[in-house]
Every structure is written in C-alpha cells, then in structure tokens.
Amino acid sequence: MSTTLDSALVADLAGEVSGSVLGPQDAGYDAARAVHNGLIDRRPALIVRCRTTNDVVAALALARRAGLEVSIRGGGHNVAGRAVTDGGVMIDLAEMKGIAIDPDEATATAEGGVIWAELNDAAAEHGLAVTGGAVSGTGIAGYTLGGGLGWLMAKYGLAADNLLTVEFVTAEGDVLRADARSHADLFWALRGGGGNFGVATSFTYRLHPVQTIVGGLIAHPIVAAPELLRFYRDAVADAPDDLTVFAGLVHAPDGSGAKLSALVVFHTGDPVEAERDLEPFKTWGSPLLVEVGPMPYPVMNTILDAGFPAGSLNYWLSSFTRGLPDELIDITVERFANVPSPMTAILFEHFHGAVTRVGVTETAVPHRKQGWNLLIPSVWTDPGDSEANIAWSRDTFAAMRPHFGNGRWLNYLGDDQAEDAIRAAYGPNYERLREVKRRYDPDNVFHLNHNIAP
Q: Rounded to an integer, what distance in angstroms lies between the CA atom of residue 381 and that of residue 94?
C-alpha cells in the first residue's frame, strides 16, 4: 500500500521527537520494518523510532492528523506480525531500552523496547528474576500484555501476575499510570488483554529471588515418543511448584533433520530437591542426550533460541487441551512423522502451580486450569515451502481438534485466526475487556492486534 504523507507534518514530527523518523526512501527503513516472522512483509508510510514517551505522544498525534492506521512494535517477536502496518504509522519502541532494578524493593522497571535477555541479565545481577520468555529475544511488552508464560510460572505465576504498574499512552495522547489503585480497570485489562488499549511505554514488575536453577534438555529417539509422552503425562501429575517440564517432538539441532522426542526440564529448588525431582525424568528409558545441570536463570531462557532464528518463516497454531489422553499422543506421533520442515516441533506446555491459583477473572488472562497448552510452531526458511508447511499445520491441528479445550493462548495466535479463536483467548473476560476498550479506545485506533472491537 502506498500512502503520501504531508512533508510539512513529517518535518514537524522529525523536529519534535528525539528518535528517528523513517520513510520508505530512508536508510534503515527496511531493517526497521522487519519483524521476527519472515512471512510478514508490510510497508508502513512512516516509522517513528521512539526514544521517549513524549515521542510516542507526538507520533500518535501525527497519525491522528494524517488519518493513518497505527501499529505498535515492541520486540517484534509476535508471530502474527501485527506490529507492522501497511501504509500507516508504525510506532517503534525498539530504542526504548531503559531498565531500573530496585533490589531493596525487589522491583524492575523496564521500557517497552526491552527484550527478555536484557531484563533477565539486569535482574540477575541482583539475584532476582521474574517470569520471562522461553526465547530470550522476545520483547517484554507484547509478551506481558498477552499474559507471559514461561519457566517460572509454576513458582511465581505469569509475567502479568507480577506486573505492578504500567505507563501508558492513550489514543488521545494522554499519559497514564495504571496500577491496582489508579485506572484499576485498565490495569486489569492490560494483564492479558493484549495491545487493544493503547501504547504501554514501561512496565514495573515484582521480582523474586532466583539465581542458579537446574534445567536443560533430555532427548530420546523418536520411536520412544509414544511411551515418553505417556510417562511425561503421569510424571507431572503431582509436580511441585519448583518443577516445570515441557515435552514435545522436535528435530535434532545439528541440522541432520533427525526427529527426536524430548523433555525440557526446569527446577527452582535447592540442589537436593532438584536432583530428587528430576531423577525420574533423567533416568527413564534410554536417552540419547541428558544435558541437565545448574545454570543461571538467564541462560535457561536461551536454550531454545536456536530453534527460532530471526527472519525464519513462522506459522503457529495452539490450543489448550482436555488432558493428554493416549489418542492425542498417538495423533501427535502420527502427524509428526510427515512434518515437512526440519525446524518444526509439536510441544506440550504444562500449566500447574502458582499460575493456576489465580482466579479466572482476577486478571484478563482466563487460562488458570492445570493441564496442557499444545503449540505447533511451524518454522521453515524457503518461501517456496510455505504452502506445504501451512497446510501440514492446519491438517495436524484439525486432526487434534477433538481433544481441545475451550482456551487459546493469546500470544500464539497467528495473523489469520478467526473471531472464535480470539474470543477463546479472552474467554469469559471478553465482555469486560470490551467495556474497558470502549472507555479507553472507543474509535478502535489500536486495532492491529487480536482485536476486541468496541
């Protein structure tokens, strides 16, 4: 889409903001419009690379005057790619990198362009942490607004459960501070309602004492997959809060394309407890690989990074399941036998512990039952393979559908998800979220998201 902007408006904005203003003719434009998912190829009329909250206010004002669509880019990692508008104004927070750790209060305040690798490292200097992305390049903003699942959620809840304050810019350009006492309705909605309400320019989190954890990967031959998944299902039934285990069918990271069945384990307890709780997982069957040991928490959040390289082509589908019955396990194994890409996986993420002890309506995240979230992250590199990979993903998802529950994880929804999937992500909180949307964004300025129409 081609949009011609009033050059005087653009010049005024460039003189007003401390960041940079990029049009299609400018150096750096293509790099700035690129997001993690290489399937996304959209061309904003203007990219405003903000460095301050005032820059965000000015960019929104220009978009209003010009009558242009607005998109918001935090880390740019979300698979749906709605951080990029075609022909509108992209407000890019990537250069808003401020982080302040208060070790006495055990809090972290971080700006909207921070990624988890940066926040993890800053907090770890003080022996502190909060639930963050399992892939370290994920941005804190979209991740937190969508709920924020990760390794620490069984011990300390979701990222959204640990959110204390959000600095926020409305469609009208007002700068608000939302917390449990001020704009409490908005604060509730920001913890799981996505980017529907405005621009979140900074986040303050409650931190927890976390230093060395015990974690890593356990891999088995693919022929062991049916029994490994059955073992896994039973072994995590009474898992303590300190232990989180995800399971899946994956490919060997050496590029050979070899299929594996695998467990990713994570433990926050002391070494004796960790050894006791992890021993059954380490000794089951005849593993090809057991790389499990003590490591700093930030390192744990990098061990899956290589499987999700920037610029790769991504098509994801996910749903919460009704348990992990034998039939679903068998379908998973059968479908993975014909997976077209040696980068694709089928994963089961176990929800238990602290994340399940928050009420369904306490935050906007309704997914609080113990059980599993199924994720099919299809990843490939050749655009010529897109049709085959997307078709396999959809067919696999359809084959598994009889075993799905009612919920979808918001941050895993792709760009083509139907209205029923979006409603399933917000669950019983949808109508309350809609009321908040009407109050803070009645004109639906912020609609490039999994949208709640006012």
A: 25
Structure tokens that stand for 128 in this block: 């502190």
What is the value of pTM for the model shown?
0.95
Write phi, then psi, for 295 (nearest 5 degrees).
Answer: -160, 160
- For 293, what's the count of Cα atoms within 13 Å in the CB-facing half-sphere? 3
How do residues 349-368 score in pLDDT, each as one tens digit?
A: 999 999 999 999 999 999 99
The model's confidence at residue 416, banded by pLDDT at 50, 70 and 90, is confident
Amino acid (one-letter) located at 357: R
Tracing tokens 């303590």 back to the chain, one arrives at: 240
pLDDT, tens digit, for every residue of 41-55? 999 999 999 999 999
Whether the pLDDT of residue 1 is over 60: the answer is no
Pick from 105, 134, 107, 144: nearest CA to 122: 107
pLDDT in tens, 259-291: 999 999 999 999 999 999 999 999 999 999 999
Long-range contacts of 273-278 (CB under 8 A, 24+ apart): 273/240, 273/242, 274/214, 274/242, 275/214, 277/239, 277/240, 277/242, 277/243, 278/214, 278/243
Domains and CATH numbers, the chain: 7-92 (3.30.43.10), 99-209+428-440 (3.30.465.10), 212-424 (3.40.462.20)
